Amino acid sequence: MRNSLIKGDTEMECTEKKGICSSCQHASTCSADEQRRHQEELMKERLQLIRHRIMVMSGKGGVGKSTVTANLANLLAEEGYKVGVLDADIHGPNIPTMLGVEGRTMGMSPEGIEPLELPNGLKVVSLGFLIKDKDTPVIWRGPLKMGVLRQFLSEVNWGNLDFLFVDLPPGTGDEPLSIVQLIHHLDGAIVVTTPQHVALLDSRKSVNFCHKVNVKVVGIVENMSGLICPHCGEEIDLFKKGGGEKASVELGEPFLGRVPIDPALVEAGDRGVPFVTRFAKSPAAKALKEIGERLLQFVGEK
Hints:
The chain has 302 residues and is of the alpha/beta class. The chain has one domain: Rossmann fold (3-Layer(aba) Sandwich), CATH 3.40.50.300. The chain has helices at 11-16, 32-47, 65-78, 95-98, 142-154, 174-182, 197-212, 243-251, 263-271, 275-278, 283-299, and strands spanning 50-58, 83-87, 107-109, 112-114, 116-117, 123-126, 161-167, 188-193, 217-228, 235-236, 255-261. A hairpin with a 5-residue loop joins strand 5 and strand 6. Helix 3 (65-78) crosses helix 11 (283-299), helix 5 packs parallel to helix 6 (174-182) and helix 7 packs parallel to helix 8 (243-251). 45% of the residues are buried. Mean pLDDT is 88; it is low at 6-20.
């Protein structure tokens, strides 16, 4: 099974090839149980080199979870931390676009699959790098998705990292549960929401999911919280305001901050530009930096 994703095999071949052990690389008579054991050992070795493991999740789609992930990762990388991003959104991998590496492919080395590396040292892994046609849907059941996430954690040469951000799809289904099962010692989860009632209902489910699986909640981020009119300078509560903070109080979890809507933030994401450093003086960038500071405090870095 070693490197079968890079070679472009079909989804079933990725998970069901016989006679090749994913960790020892030898055509052999390894049983399925032996292959799994070898892969678990390799994954444990990889994860021991990662100091902090943070998953970023949301109760529903369209709240800017990947935007928060990409900007926090860029922010910490620019501050000198060794950072990686695992795009665990199998069906909608947007991280390559937001980090400006869409259309590129991951390489190989004797150490395994090599993540893409940005100029600031940020390492990125996504299924988006392995899909030739970006319009092709990924039609996989749960076991296949868990299999590819296991490969990303065991066969990717992450190296020594200070932070690994896992960008999850919305909801509390296969991918979040798989990550919790595969990464046994997660530092915590950042829950991203928008202020309106419908989004808050779903974000509560994400918090309760963390409680049930014994993962600490780093805090709640209220994204799209207000819009500064570019013409008059007045603030408009486009999606209301304060709902995320209220939910954090009711749920007894930290509130990390509000990020206002900024057209430049949207444009930067589409172009793969690091907004938090390119537009450092904007209110949205300042809010993201404050969230980054609170994350560092949470993991004991400051």
